[in-house]
TrEMBL record:
Entry keyword annotation includes Transferase: yes
Organism, as annotated: Streptomyces showdoensis
Xref: Pfam families: MoCF_biosynth, MoeA_N
UniProt KW Magnesium keyword: yes
Domain of life: Bacteria
Record key words, sorted: Magnesium, Metal-binding, Molybdenum, Molybdenum cofactor biosynthesis, Transferase
Reaction equation(s) it catalyzes: adenylyl-molybdopterin + molybdate = Mo-molybdopterin + AMP + H(+)
Assigned GO CC terms: cytosol
Family: Belongs to the MoeA family.
A biological-process GO annotation: Mo-molybdopterin cofactor biosynthetic process
UniProt name for this protein: Molybdopterin molybdenumtransferase
Family annotation (InterPro entries): MoaB/Mog-like_dom_sf, MoaB/Mog_dom, MoeA-like, MoeA_C_domain_IV_sf, MoeA_linker/N, MoeA_linker/N_sf
Disordered: region residues: 18-50
UniProt pathway: Cofactor biosynthesis; molybdopterin biosynthesis
Length: 453
């Protein structure tokens, strides 16, 4: 991006400001306040971007408290969040284990070889090894009691008399993984709140689990509004392809939500009311219809449904008409603006913190990377701009207009440009996309110690 870049849709917020908002008796903004027919127009107070994210996270956290943990078969736990610590159900390893193919030996060599014997992984009793004896052993097999070390095949030689000789010094306990080396029964392997990753599934299986106790996935339904949307073929006669239907379900699933479905509602207020009030989802996501056009029904439908607006407009570009409402039954609705990048902005600003908190996932700590070149800012609002990693920093992408997906489709993350813009070298907060993480910091884990066997 260059300094010549024009900020998209500047001045639109002034129009929105003139629309005003009224308040309910409770002090919360009424869902259709300031729109046609509203009695008391008042200056629109969009929520600052950081505060909007905090409101969404708080709403999710409050709703999460009423949700009971669920037990799921191990194979279904991926992407969910542990509701309780993962404690070892067994010692690991659960028996003294050979770390190498070779010989279990007892005492100093050379050793007498038991010509009949061999201890294999998964086989029953390993028997007893007398001092001066050696028996063949496979990696993963139980070490016989009395054994003092394992000698690797390649570090040994047998002679014609049936004796085993070590080709290098044998250290007591070498190549034996002692029972409980990794953990003892009852040890806490992971804390509640950890995401269930493929590695966690592996650890849980090793530690004896058939089921996991996890936070229930937030159930989400996507309602795509707009009569102008086509689901296939080329745009024609003012009709355009629905870019949000194909994008949002997979995006929300990548955030850990259970997507009940994506429905196309058109610009039909009654159908929208029925879909919102009848949805089985914890979070309803609508696209389009958030502004004040003749067929923008989201506010009036929320009002009719008795919803409470928690966020009604955010000081962010693109996407400032985004909204968050609480529906009956501790359910929520996130209204994403129709412009596709504005919808992404709403997804990252409101839906992600809400869903993360509902799922019980800890919010990732914010991280910053320096931007290479100057980035123009909005005078009062935060900007979210698709960005890519370059060297040790980031570079913002050119195609970042509210109606464009070309930038975000090529991006590694979204850079947060504070009001007023950013200078070259200024560290910018980065919002990760759920399928790629730009941060160099991982979740960490003990870096000390070495375990070669
Ligand atoms: N008088 C004002 N007009 C507008 C304002 C405003 O403040 N005052 N804000 C503008 C901004 S900013 C945005 S963003 C949009 C938000 O509008 P809506 O949420 O009501 O969205 P629509 O009007 O339904 O659609 C806007 C735009 O996006 C296209 N669209 C909608 N859905 C999809 C989809 N699924 N896939 C692809 N494209 C979609 C739609 O055709 C429109 O072009 O309002 C501005 N107006
Ligand atoms: O410009 Mo609008 O901010 O949401 O696309």
């Amino acid at each position: 991006m260059t300094m010549k870049e024009r900020l998209p849709d500047d001045g639109v917020d002034d129009a929105l400001a003139l629309l005003g908002r009224a308040r309910t008796d409770s002090g919360a903004p009424r869902a259709d306040a300031g729109r046609a027919g509203s009695a008391v127009p008042e200056a629109h107070r969009a929520t600052p971007w950081p505060e909007a994210r905090a409101v969404a996270a708080r709403a999710g956290k409050d709703a999460a408290e009423a949700r009971e943990p669920v037990r799921v078969p191990l194979g279904q736990g991926l992407g969910q969040v542990l509701a309780e610590p993962l404690r070892a159900l067994t010692d690991l390893p659960s028996f003294d284990t050979s770390a190498m193919d070779g010989w279990a030996v007892a005492g100093p060599g050379p050793w007498r070889i038991d010509p009949e014997g061999a201890v294999l992984a998964g086989h029953g009793s390993a028997g007893e090894l007398a001092d001066g004896d050696a028996v063949r052993i496979a990696t993963g097999a139980r070490v016989p009691s009395g054994a003092t070390a394992v000698v690797r095949s390649e570090h040994s030689r047998t002679d014609a008399a049936g004796h085993l000789h070590a080709l290098r010094a044998v250290v007591h306990g070498q190549d034996i993984r002692p029972r409980g080396q990794e953990c003892r029964t009852g040890d806490r392997l992971l804390t509640a709140g950890n995401a269930v990753t493929p590695a966690v599934l592996g650890l849980a299986a090793a530690a004896g689990y058939d089921e996991l106790t996890v936070r229930p996935r937030p159930r989400v339904e996507v309602l795509v509004l707009g009569d102008e949307l086509l689901t296939e073929g080329l745009p024609h006669e003012g009709l355009i392809r629905d870019a949000l239907g194909p994008m949002l379900g997979p995006w929300l699933a990548a955030l850990g939500a259970e997507v009940l479905g994506t429905r196309r509602i058109g610009d039909d207020a009654e159908a929208l009311f029925a879909a919102v009030t009848g949805s089985a989802a914890d979070v309803v996501i609508t696209t389009g219809g958030t502004a004040a056009g003749p067929v923008d029904h989201v506010h009036s439908v929320l009002d009719k449904a008795g919803a409470t607006l928690l966020v009604d407009g955010v000081k962010v570009r693109p996407g400032h008409p985004m909204l968050l409402a609480r529906l009956e039954g501790a359910r929520h609705l996130v209204g994403l603006p129709g412009n596709p990048l504005a919808a992404v902005s709403g997804l990252l600003t409101l839906a992600e913190p809400l869903l993360r908190a509902l799922a019980g996932s800890p919010a990732p700590g914010p991280y910053r990377l320096p931007v290479g070149a100057e980035v123009p800012g909005h005078p009062y609002d935060t900007r979210l701009v698709p960005a890519v990693h370059r060297g040790d920093g980031v570079e913002v992408l050119h195609y970042n207009g509210p109606a464009m997906l070309r930038g975000i489709a090529a991006a590694h993350g979204m850079a947060v440009i504070p009001p007023g813009g950013a200078r070259p070298g200024q560290p910018l907060e980065i919002l990760d996309l759920p399928w790629q993480v730009m941060s160099a910091e991982g979740p960490g884990g003990g870096a000390q110690g070495v375990c070669f066997t």
